[in-house]
Specification:
By secondary structure, the chain is mainly beta. The chain has a single domain, classed as Electron Transport, Fmn-binding Protein, Chain A (Pnp Oxidase, Chain A), CATH 2.30.110. Helices cover 11% and strands 37% of the residues. The strands form 3 sheets. It has a 7-stranded antiparallel β-sheet. A hairpin with a 4-residue loop joins strand 3 and strand 4. The longest helix is centred in the first third of the chain and has 8 residues. It is globular and about 60 Å long. The protein binds flavin mononucleotide.
């Protein structure tokens, strides 16, 4: 049932209620859109591969599972990314679903200063995918197609391997903050 507090256009009387939520219609500028997109909770995935023997990577919250047959996933990467052009040349990419408590590690993997992998446990597969230790899920994938996504590129990847670590809780990203899952009910 839609209650006045959750209705997109609450009647005027609803605002008199103590718990009434008045929706906020924002302009579609970058700051407002960042805030709006941040209302949708996601996990965070570390993309990584070896380039010239060194780990290269970045954190993305845009990961989405796409297809079971064939197995496919996608991410969207900013056209301004300086790391993606190096990553996309790698034959195989590692995708690590970061776990609860890996928020600082995630910030480092997004930082433009310093060594992104400094202090981070990682390992490379024989085909050069870089995977982060203590993650909730490891996947390796190969870029299959790249589509126009405005100021981002939508990167469709074919999954090659998955390794799940049961019981390892994921990191959650919401409203620019890292959070933890809590059971409901
Ligand atoms: C939680 C979080 C999620 C992010 N998600 C994305 C994303 O989905 N796509 C993207 O292009 N950059 C994303 N970034 C930014 C990148 O991690 C990185 O900062 C950016 O690519 C700039 O670095 P670069 O020039 O080395 O690529 C995210 C950063 C954080 C902290």
């Amino acid at each position: 049932m839609v209650t006045p507090a959750h209705h997109p256009n609450p009647p005027a009387a609803a605002s008199a209620e103590p718990n009434a939520v008045v929706p906020h219609t924002a302009e579609l500028n970058a700051a407002a859109l960042r805030q709006a997109f941040g209302a949708y909770p996601t996990g965070v995935v570390a993309l990584g591969a070896l380039r010239d023997g060194e780990p290269v990577g970045l954190a993305v919250s845009s990961f989405v599972s796409i297809s079971l047959e064939p197995p496919m996933v996608a991410v969207s990467v900013a056209r301004t990314s300086t790391t993606w052009p190096r990553l996309t040349e790698a034959p195989v990419l590692g995708l690590s679903v970061l776990s609860r408590g890996q928020g600082a590690l995630c910030r480092r993997l997004a930082s433009r200063e310093g060594d992104r992998f400094d202090g981070t446990g990682w390992q490379a597969t024989p085909d050069g995918a870089v995977l982060i230790h203590d993650a909730a899920l490891w996947q390796t994938a190969r870029v299959n197609a790249v589509y126009d996504g405005g100021d981002h590129e939508i990167v469709l990847m074919e999954l090659l391997t998955v390794e799940l670590f049961p019981g390892v809780e994921p990191l959650v990203f919401h409203t620019s903050q890292f959070r933890e899952l809590t059971p409901h009910g």
